[in-house]
Specification:
Length: 479
C-alpha cells in the first residue's frame, strides 16, 4: 500500500486492543477510504455493508429510499450467513437483526463491523441516527470484542452527525481518521509501483489535474505520456472522468446544484472571493443557507477560508483548492468541441501555460510541510497566506505566499513553474525589491524578510540571483 503508514498503525492497534472501538474514517470521495479498510482488515471483517448511492435510481421500483436501504441491509445480513426471516420495517429492527446475528456468531474473538458510506443510509425521515445510537450505546459499546468502523465521503455529515454530535453519540467515537489525498511523493511511489514512467516535472502537472486522488491516478496507463493520459481521462469519447464532476457533488450533498454554483463562483477568481462577492456571483443571499453550504464545502476539502495578509479578520476569503474541480471548470465543463487529442494538441498554448503557473501555487500551499522542512523550520509555528494590494491603492503588488514565522522571519515566496532553471533579470529584480519595500511597511521592525523562490529546476546563477535568500526546487516538494 502506498503511504497511509500512520493510519495503518492506528487501525491495527485499535483492532488488537481488548475493548470496544468505534472508528470513523472520512475524507474526500475517491480518496481511498474503503481500500484502506479492506487492505488492513483483509479476512478479518465479520460483517460488512455499504449504503446505496443516492445518485442511482431504479425507475421501475416504487420503493422509498428508506425501503431500498433496509432491503439492501437485510440482503447483506443474508449473504453473510444470517438465516432468512423478514425484511425489517425500520432501522430499529434492522440493527436488532444485526445484534442477534453477531451474538449467534460470537466465539469470543474480535468482531469487526464495517459500514461503508454511512451517510447514504440516513435518508430523510428514516430514523437512522436514533437507531444507530441505540445500536452502539445499548449493545456494541459494552462488548469488548466489538470494533465498529464506519466510512463516509459526505464529510460534513460525518462531522455533524458523528464527530461533533451533541446527542446520543456525543463523545462516543474512540478514533477518527481523516484521510488526505496523496502527496507528490506518494504519487511518485504510486506511478513507480504501476510501472508508469513519468518525470517529477510531469508528476507535478498530473497533480494539478487530479490532485493526488488515488482513484483518479488508477486510470493512468503505462506507455502513454502525461498529455496522452489526460486526453484519455477527460477528452476522449466515454472518458472515465468526463462526468465525474457532477457525480462527485451528487454523491456527497443533498443539494448538489447549489454547491456546484458556489464552487463555480469561487473558482472564477484565483485568489477567491468574499462572502458578499460570492453571494452576488452565485445569486444567493448572505445568510444561514450560504453559511452552512460553505462550512460543508470546507469540511469536504473543496475550498478553504482564509484572511489575506494584512487584512482584518472580518475580511475572510473563500478559495477553491481542489485541483480536480479547478481543472474541470477551466478546461472541461461546457466545452463540447474539444476533440479527442485536445490536451496533446494544446499543451504549449498560453492558456495552459498560464494555468500551470496558477495551479503550481495551489500545490505549494498543499505542500507547506515540505516547504517548511526545506527551509529548516519544521518545528516553527507559522501562518501562510497570499497578499495583494487592494485595487486603487498606490504601488499595488501581489505576493504568491507569505510565511509568517514565530522566529521573527517572514518568507516572501515567489512560485515559478518553469521547464528549466529560473533566471532573474534586471526588471524582475526591481519588482522583487519593490515587493520587499511594500511588505516591510506592513511588518513590525523586528521582522526580517527573506525572499524565497519555489520553482521546478532551481535558480540560474547570474548577477541578480542574489535577489533570493532561499531557493527551493521541486525535489523538496517530493520529500
Amino acid at each position: 500500500m502506498i503511504g497511509r503508514k500512520q493510519e495503518i498503525t492506528t487501525l491495527k492497534k485499535l483492532y488488537e486492543s481488548n475493548k470496544a472501538q468505534f472508528v470513523a474514517v472520512y475524507g474526500r470521495r475517491r480518496v481511498g477510504k474503503t481500500f484502506l479498510i479492506n487492505e488492513v482488515f483483509e479476512g478479518k471483517i465479520t460483517f460488512r455493508h455499504a449504503g446505496l448511492s443516492p445518485i442511482e435510481s431504479d425507475v421501475e421500483s416504487t420503493d422509498s429510499p428508506l425501503r431500498k436501504q433496509l432491503k439492501h441491509f437485510y440482503n447483506s445480513l443474508i449473504l453473510q450467513g444470517m438465516k432468512k426471516s423478514k425484511c425489517p420495517e425500520n432501522w430499529m429492527d434492522a440493527f436488532l437483526m444485526l445484534e442477534m446475528f453477531l451474538q449467534d456468531m460470537d466465539d469470543g474473538s474480535r468482531q469487526l463491523i464495517f459500514i461503508d458510506e454511512l451517510p447514504w443510509l440516513d435518508t430523510p425521515k428514516s430514523g437512522f441516527i436514533t437507531a444507530f445510537e441505540g445500536f452502539w450505546n445499548t449493545w456494541a459499546c459494552s462488548r469488548k470484542n466489538v470494533m465498529l468502523v464506519v466510512c463516509g465521503s459526505a464529510t460534513s455529515w460525518m462531522t455533524d452527525k458523528l464527530i461533533n454530535n451533541h446527542g446520543g453519540l456525543y463523545n462516543r467515537l474512540t478514533c477518527e481518521i481523516k484521510l488526505a489525498p496523496f502527496s507528490l511523493g506518494e504519487c511518485e511511489q504510486y506511478f513507480i509501483s504501476e510501472n508508469i514512467k513519468m518525470s517529477r516535472y510531469d508528476i507535478i502537472q498530473s497533480y494539478m489535474i487530479t490532485g493526488g486522488i488515488p482513484y483518479y491516478l488508477s486510470y493512468y496507463q503505462s506507455g502513454l505520456s502525461l498529455a496522452q493520459n489526460v486526453d484519455e481521462l477527460f477528452f476522449k469519447k466515454s472518458a472515465p472522468l468526463l462526468n465525474e464532476f457532477n457525480r462527485l457533488f451528487s454523491a456527497i450533498f443533498n443539494n448538489p446544484e447549489m454547491m456546484i454554483s458556489i464552487i463555480r463562483a469561487i473558482g472564477a477568481k484565483h485568489y477567491g472571493c468574499t462572502r458578499s462577492e460570492l453571494a452576488e456571483a452565485a445569486g444567493m443571499t448572505v445568510g444561514g443557507t450560504l453559511t452552512k453550504a460553505l462550512s460543508a464545502l470546507i469540511a469536504s476539502d473543496f475550498i478553504i477560508k482564509y484572511v489575506p495578509f494584512g487584512y482584518s479578520k472580518k475580511e475572510e476569503y473563500y478559495k477553491l483548492t481542489d485541483s480536480f474541480c479547478n481543472f474541470y471548470l477551466r478546461f472541461v465543463e461546457n466545452k463540447k468541441e474539444l476533440g479527442n487529442e485536445f490536451w496533446l494538441s494544446n499543451i504549449g498554448s498560453q492558456n495552459i501555460v498560464t494555468w500551470r503557473g496558477l495551479a503550481f501555487e495551489n500545490i505549494c500551499f498543499n505542500h507547506i510541510k515540505q516547504i517548511k522542512k526545506a527551509l529548516g523550520i519544521s518545528g516553527v509555528s507559522t501562518n501562510q497566506s497570499a497578499w495583494s494590494k487592494r485595487k486603487g491603492e498606490e504601488n499595488g503588488t501581489q505576493i504568491d505566499m507569505i510565511i509568517e514565522r514565530k522566529d521573527n522571519i517572514v518568507n516572501m515566496c515567489e512560485m515559478k513553474f518553469y521547464g528549466e532553471e529560473f533566471s532573474v533579470d534586471k526588471n524582475y529584480d526591481k519588482v522583487l525589491r519593490n515587493r520587499i519595500s511594500l511588505l516591510s511597511e506592513e511588518l513590525s521592525p523586528k521582522m526580517a524578510i527573506h525572499s524565497t523562490l519555489i520553482t521546478t529546476y532551481g535558480l540560474k546563477y547570474n548577477e541578480y540571483s542574489g535577489a533570493f535568500t532561499n531557493v527551493i526546487d521541486m525535489d523538496a516538494l517530493f520529500d
